[in-house]
C-alpha cells in the first residue's frame, strides 16, 4: 500500500484494509479533494503499469475533474484517457461514496485489453463474414466455370433436338399444304355438277400428294417434335436448377436420384461417346438438403469419372440407404488414383490434370458442400482399375446443428 498522506483517514477498519490488500482489483480510498488515503497493491501495480511510477496519485491524475465528478455522481464511469496520445487507455471506474463522510471508495479497471479483445473479436467476425461471402463467390464461380466447361456440350444437347424439330417443322409445312390441297380438291369435286363422275380425280390427287405416306408419317413427326421440345425444356430447367447458389437457401426435402439424373442430363454429351452407363438405383427417401448444391457434387464426381476414362469405359451409378443415411456412388473404370495422391484429393487446387483442364477445386468444393450437410465422401480406388466416390448424407438435418460449420477433410 502507498503511504497515506499526512492526515491518516482512520476510516478503514483493519478488516477492510486487509480485504482491500487481498482484492485483485485496484481499489483506492479518496477524500473529497481526491487525495489518496489508501491504495491496495493492485492499484499501485496498475499505476506502475499505466504511468510508470507505482504511485496511486498518478492513477488519480489520469482522470479529469469532470470524469471524477461523473463517476461520483453516477457511481460508474467508463471512457478513454490519453496520458500518452499514442497509447489511449480505456478505464472503468466504480465508485461508492460513504454515507457519513465525503470519502469514497473507487475501483479503477484498465479495460484497454478487454476493449482490444472486443475490437479483435469484431474484426474476426467481419473476416468470417468476408470469408463466407468469398466462399459463396468461389462456389458460384466454380459452378459457372463448370457450366462454362459444359457449355459446348449443353449447346450441342440443345442444338440437336432444335435441329430436328426445325427440320420436322419444314416437313410438316409441306404435309399441311398437301393436305390443304387435298381438302381443296374435295371441295371442288363435292360442289361440282357431277361429283360422282369426278371421284377418280380425288383418288389421283391422293396418290400424287402421297397422302397415305403423310398420314403414316405425320403422328411420328409430331411426337418426335414434342419430345425434342420437352428435352430442350428439361435441359434449360436443369441448368436453371443447377446454377442456383445462395446463402439464404433453406435445406428442403429433395429427391436425390432425380437430381442425379438431371445432372447426368447436363454432362451426358461429354460422356456419351466413351462411357457405357449403368444405373443400380435403390429408391431413396427424400433427403433434407440444398438440392442444387448436392447436384454440383454429382456434377463434379461425374466429370471426374468421365475424365478418368481415357478411351472407353463404364460408369456405374448406385444408391442405397438405411434408417438414418442415404448414399449415392459414382464408380468409374478409369485410371484410378495412386495411394500417394489419396490424402490430397480434397485439398483445394490439387489437380493432376493439365493446365486449362482442371483447377483442382471440384472435390474441395464438393467436400465443403457435403460437410455442410453433415455427410461424408468415401473414396476407394485401384490404379489401373478405377475409383468409387460414395457420397453419404443424413436423411434429416439435426435442428441444433449449425449448417455453416465445417469439418476437417477426411483421410481418403
Ligand atoms: N474418378 C477419379 N479417378 C481418378 N482420379 C481422380 C478421380 N477424381 C478425382 N481424381 C483426382 O483428384 C484430383 C482432384 O480432383 P478435383 O475434381 O478436385 O479437381 P480436378 O478435376 O483436377 O479439377 P476441377 O474439378 O477443378 O476441374 C484430380 O486432378 C485427379 O487427379
Ligand atoms: Mg474435377
UniProtKB/TrEMBL annotation:
One of its GO terms (molecular function) is phosphorelay sensor kinase activity. It catalyses: ATP + protein L-histidine = ADP + protein N-phospho-L-histidine. PROSITE patterns: HIS_KIN (PS50109). The keyword Aminoacyl-tRNA synthetase does not apply. Residues 153-397 form the Histidine kinase domain. Its EC number is 2.7.13.3. The keyword Protein transport does not apply. Keywords: Kinase, Phosphoprotein, Transferase. Pfam families: HATPase_c. This is histidine kinase. The lineage of its organism: Bacteria, Pseudomonadati, Pseudomonadota, Gammaproteobacteria, Lysobacterales.
Amino acid at each position: 500500500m502507498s503511504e497515506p498522506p499526512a492526515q491518516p483517514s482512520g476510516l478503514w477498519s483493519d478488516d477492510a484494509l486487509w480485504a482491500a490488500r487481498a482484492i485483485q482489483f485496484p481499489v483506492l480510498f479518496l477524500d473529497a479533494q481526491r487525495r489518496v488515503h489508501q491504495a491496495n497493491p493492485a492499484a499501485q501495480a496498475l499505476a506502475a503499469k499505466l504511468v510508470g511510477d507505482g504511485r496511486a496519485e498518478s492513477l488519480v491524475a489520469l482522470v479529469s475533474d469532470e470524469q471524477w465528478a461523473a463517476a461520483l455522481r453516477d457511481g460508474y464511469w467508463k471512457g478513454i484517457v490519453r496520458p500518452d496520445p499514442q497509447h489511449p487507455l480505456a478505464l472503468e471506474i466504480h465508485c461508492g461514496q460513504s454515507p457519513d463522510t465525503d470519502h469514497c471508495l473507487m475501483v479503477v479497471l484498465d479495460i484497454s485489453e478487454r476493449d482490444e479483445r472486443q475490437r479483435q473479436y469484431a474484426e474476426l467476425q467481419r473476416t468470417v463474414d468476408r470469408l463466407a461471402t468469398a466462399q459463396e463467390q468461389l462456389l458460384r464461380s466454380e459452378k459457372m466455370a463448370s457450366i462454362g466447361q459444359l457449355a459446348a456440350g449443353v449447346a450441342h444437347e440443345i442444338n440437336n433436338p432444335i435441329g430436328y424439330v426445325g427440320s420436322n417443322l419444314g416437313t410438316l409445312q409441306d404435309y399441311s399444304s398437301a393436305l390443304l390441297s387435298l381438302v381443296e380438291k374435295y371441295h371442288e369435286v363435292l360442289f361440282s355438277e357431277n361429283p360422282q363422275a369426278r371421284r377418280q380425280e380425288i383418288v389421283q390427287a391422293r396418290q400424287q400428294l402421297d397422302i397415305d405416306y403423310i398420314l403414316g408419317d405425320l403422328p411420328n413427326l409430331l411426337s418426335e417434335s414434342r419430345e425434342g421440345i420437352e428435352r430442350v425444356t428439361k435441359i434449360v430447367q436443369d441448368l436453371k436448377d443447377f446454377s442456383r447458389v445462395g446463402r439464404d437457401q433453406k435445406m428442403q426435402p429433395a429427391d436425390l436420384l432425380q437430381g442425379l439424373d438431371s445432372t447426368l442430363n447436363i454432362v451426358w454429351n461429354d460422356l456419351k461417346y466413351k462411357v457405357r452407363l449403368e444405373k443400380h438405383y435403390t429408391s431413396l427417401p427424400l433427403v433434407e438438403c440444398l438440392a442444387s448444391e448436392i447436384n454440383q457434387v454429382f456434377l463434379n464426381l461425374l466429370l471426374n469419372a468421365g475424365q478418368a476414362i481415357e478411351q472407353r469405359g463404364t460408369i456405374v451409378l448406385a444408391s442405397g440407404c438405411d434408417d438414418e443415411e442415404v448414399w449415392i456412388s459414382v464408380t468409374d473404370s478409369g485410371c484410378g488414383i495412386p495411394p500417394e495422391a489419396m490424402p490430397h484429393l480434397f485439398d483445394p487446387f490439387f489437380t493432376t490434370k493439365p493446365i486449362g483442364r482442371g483447377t483442382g477445386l471440384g472435390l474441395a468444393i464438393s467436400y465443403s458442400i457435403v460437410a455442410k450437410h453433415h455427410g461424408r465422401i468415401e473414396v476407394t480406388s485401384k490404379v489401373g482399375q478405377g475409383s468409387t466416390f460414395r457420397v453419404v448424407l443424413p436423411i434429416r438435418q439435426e435442428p441444433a446443428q449449425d449448417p455453416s460449420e465445417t469439418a476437417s477433410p477426411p483421410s481418403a
